[in-house]
Write a structure and sequence with these properties.
Layout lengths: L9 E12 L2 H6 L4 E12 L3 E5 L6 H8 L7 E6 L8 H5 L1 E4 L11 H11 L4 H14 L15 H12 L6 E5 L7 H16 L3 E5 L3 H7 L2 E6 L2 E7 H5 E11 L3 H10 L3 E4 L4 E6 L2 H13 L2 E9 L2 H15 L19
Parallel strand pairs: 3-7, 3-8, 5-6, 6-7
Antiparallel strand pairs: 1-2, 1-4, 8-9, 10-12, 10-13, 11-12
Helix pairs in contact: 4-5, 10-11
Length: about 350
């Protein structure tokens, strides 16, 4: 993962953010309602890829709408570039949004569609032409730019959706399920686009059900369930398996191999003269390293053990279901990695 910016580069901040949906009757009497988000606190830093994950009904869509200023919070505060995204025109000019399954006018060509939205945004005509041409080239849509959007495949629609989000060259891009429905080639292309935006210094706020893509792309992550925060922080820290190290050694003599195996029976990979082991982080690992060095073998790598994001996800949800009385108990854990509605 690339270096994450410092505290001074915070561009999105949520403080004790909550949202309860109420009917008119419930609002009148201040009672009841459906709590979608409860006391969310998060910071998103300039230039990072930040992921919001959670099972269906966890509050992801509500969080996105709050952060973009599309709905009012019941309590708490949202700041984007230090201002309220609900009321600040400047903030709205500096953010872009790529929704899940965007709908566009099918009779317009790709070029006409982007030009239409550029005009709606009040961009000067010459700037619209330049920017649309640039985006079509960047997203490899030039050859299809003069064809109606109604003839586009799912992958092409996703590309046009991203081009729409990037029209005003925003500093923050919110992306809701950007690889939904894409084939492996389209998914790989979208991942590369996210990396390119990060390389340009843009902040990407990503909402996805695909945990493997979160692992590949993101610097930090927040896990929600039923509107509560279960995990939040640096991805590598969350995935690290504390107290365990992965050791890889090679060019071992038979005698050294026996000594190493006697001290660490947990073998991940075993070849004639090389081993990959799980060793405790402490005195035992130092003993094994001493054996390797004294024998003249090669110490190839010593790295922290790392869990998958799916393992962290499932453990967190299962623990919360066991501990929290407000959590529905009839939802199967298999639903966590389904696409479905947010």
């Amino acid at each position: 993962m690339a270096e994450v910016p410092t505290e001074g580069d915070v561009v999105i901040r949520a403080t004790e953010l909550s949202k309860t949906y109420r009917t008119g009757f419930q609002q009148l009497f201040g009672k009841g309602g459906v709590e979608a988000l409860n006391n969310l606190n998060l910071d998103v830093r300039r230039g990072e890829v930040f992921a919001l994950i959670g099972p269906n009904g966890s509050g992801k869509t509500t969080t996105l709408k709050l952060l973009m200023g599309l709905i009012f919070p019941t309590s708490g505060k949202v700041e984007v570039f230090g201002a309220n995204p609900r009321t600040s025109v400047d903030v709205k000019k500096r953010i872009g949004f790529m929704p899940d399954g965007p709908y566009f006018y099918s009779h317009l060509t790709g070029y006409e569609l982007l030009a239409f939205y550029g005009n709606l945004l009040g961009m000067p005509k010459d700037e619209v032409e330049t920017r649309v041409t640039e985006l079509l080239q960047k997203l490899e849509m030039t050859t299809r730019a003069k064809q109606p959007v109604g003839t586009y495949s799912k992958g092409m629609l996703q590309r046009i959706g991203l081009a729409h989000a990037l029209l005003q060259n925003p500093e923050i891009i919110f992306m809701d399920e950007p690889t939904s429905g894409l084939d492996p080639v389209g998914t790989a292309d979208m991942h590369q686009m996210v990396r390119s935006m990060k390389a340009e210094g843009k902040t990407v706020f990503l909402c996805s059900h695909f945990l493997t893509e979160i692992e590949d792309l993101c610097d930090r992550v927040i896990l929600l369930d039923r509107g509560r925060t279960l995990q939040y922080g640096d991805l590598e820290t969350l995935l690290a398996e504390r107290g365990k190290m992965r050791l890889r050694v090679s060019a071992l003599t038979p005698a050294a191999r026996e000594q190493v195996l006697a001290r660490s029976p947990h073998v991940l990979e075993d070849a004639d003269t090389s081993l990959q082991l799980v060793v405790p982080d402490g005195a035992e690992s130092y003993e094994i390293i001493s054996v390797v060095r004294d024998s003249g073998a090669h110490l190839d790598a010593l790295t922290p053990m790392r869990r998958t994001l799916e393992e962290v996800f499932m453990e967190s949800i299962a623990r919360q279901q066991a501990d929290a009385p407000w959590q529905d108990t009839d939802r199967g854990l298999g639903q966590i990695v389904d696409r479905g509605e947010n």
